[in-house]
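job 3f2a | input accepted
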Amino acid sequence: MPFWAAATLVSDSEAPLDFQVSLEDMVSSTGRLVEGDLSQYSAKGTPFVEGDVLFGKLRPYLAKHWLADREGTAGGDIHVYRPEADVEPRYLAYIVGSRNFVRFAEAASKGVKMPRAEWMSLREYPVTAHDLGTQRAIADYLDRETGEIDAMIAKMDELAEKLEVRRMSAMQRSTQYADDGARWNVVPTAHLFASIGSGTTPKGSGYYVESGAGVPWVTTSELRENLVTATLQDVTEEAVAAVSSLRVHPRGAIVIAMYGATIGRLGVLGTDATMNQACCAFSSPRDVDPRFFYYTLWGQRDDIIREAAGGGQPNISQGMLRRWRVPHPPVDEQRRIADHLDEVTGKIDAMLAKVAELKSLLIERRAALITDVVTGRKAVA
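job 3f2a | predicted structure (381 res):
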């Protein structure tokens, strides 16, 4: 039967109730909401009740859905499906969370940069018809099976968190303390680099070209404790010549994000590059090993963020970063510590990569199981 025979799209628009769900509150491919406080907004939304199924229509490939366990209001980019009387809500939720439904929604989307699923197409999605008893048996089976998979995924998340804590502890201990437990002397970063500077966002679309066709232009979204060898888009040589604040920073510079959600994230330039005004680059080191400095900033991230100013979008300034004091052992000792941290963090990164791979396999297994069961390819026990 078509999807519209199993569920109705709720199209009402009302002032928000106390409990509100936005697209950002739904976790991809899990059927869950994020932990902690959810979004709060004052705009009207779509009301939902217990048993309704919410589905993120913006970028449907993100597979965001949730079976409502209470009444509330859904944000603008969320479809609310209300199951018909002869449809088990949990069965409907598994259909919406299945890989086939998400692919169908993606194909039924309109828009390139911000694709949105269209109900008029999505309503024709073919649903395997079962009586209510069979639907409940399927939902019971999937509750049990996905519950076991979710428990294993939670274990993977817990292990990853412990590994990240271990990595941070190693960096903080090694960069701040000598082997005898004494703290290293500290100096402002301005004493350690001949150049500390930022960049800008050139005005005019003609200044931008695709990646690889011009001079790399780094933004904070590209700083993930990584080597930056290419950027999502480049700027032209003409832009560099015309905009004086669009400096080219040398390969090997340490870059830190100064604004917003990515504040404190780091990168190392693997090529000469420009950057926008939200990035700050440290180059031309003097009496400092860049790798030691990189690990030091990483270990000090929480302290740096605490110095950020601003409410909605906290930020740190170049002036604050120039004054920021970092440990400064002898250079030979810095190199020894950096070598040690290369080895330690390398091993932890390898373990984190393995954990991420296992988690990805579990998520894939979960999606495949749901799809096989709700489409009838796999019979429930």
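job 3f2a | The chain has a mean pLDDT of 92.
job 3f2a | closed
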